Amino acid sequence: MSSDDWKRQAAEQALSYVEDGMKLGLGTGSTAAKFVDLLGEKVKGGLKVVCVPTSEATRAQAAALGIPLATLDEHPALDLTVDGADEMDEEMRLIKGGGGALLREKIVAVASDRVVIIADSSKRVDVLGRFPLPIEVVPFGLASTQRLIFQMATDAGCDGEIKLRLGAGGAPFVTDNGNHILDCSFGAIDDPEALDDALKLVPGVVETGLFLGIADVGIVAGPMGVEVLSAIDADFDEENS
């Protein structure tokens, strides 16, 4: 089986958390797109849900499938969000933002009673940081913001190249919120909480791709099958390690 098959398996498992009448957050990215496709089939079969997408790309996909859509202003509290991740460690801390939707993804996730993360097994890591950490920043004062990010990250024990993400034609990538993204190749992030706190002291930083204490359930599919992880179990293991 391919990673694409594993992504679909994880998405199928996530459907078991969806109940009729729920208000759902829909994630962004290749794995989340699998879930949206499957949800569209359920909606076509009669499932009643209303969904808040985390990006314009997800909005377009869901609309094309006939999934009822709303905004967080209309439904500020959601029952469940299903999203993917670029990395997930043993404590279910995440790096997200490879698709450029990290700000909306975090807003929607925090507005949800429960957050289910779906991924293929390649996204499991012992230590976060193999995937470059995305940071959403305002365009104004970009060079100064990048310089301060480097300084704050260094103080937090992280060092590495910071690149402005480029989009089509070599122009700076622009998020759905009109911002830019800096991709930070820090390598191993030994203390994600300290790094996240430090980066948020930089005025030009809108949000980081570190999702800490947000995921409730992780569904990981791979060669050994589908594994369901619980944040409660991760907390217990950490407290007793």
Class of the largest domain in CATH? Alpha Beta
In the sheet with the most strands, the strands line up as 2-1-3-6-12-13
Strand content: 15-25%
What's the count of strands?
Answer: 13
Helix content: 25-40%
Tell me what the structure shows.
This protein has two domains: 151 residues, Rossmann fold; 75 residues, Alpha-Beta Plaits (2-Layer Sandwich), CATH 3.30.70. It has seven helices and 13 strands. It has a six-stranded mixed sheet with strand order 2-1-3-6-12-13. A four-stranded antiparallel sheet has the order 8-9-7-10. It has a three-stranded antiparallel sheet with strand order 4-5-11, covered by helices on one side. Strand 4 and strand 5 form a beta hairpin. The C terminus is likely disordered.
What descriptors fit this protein?
241 residues; alpha/beta; Rossmann fold; disordered C terminus; four-stranded antiparallel sheet; 2 domains
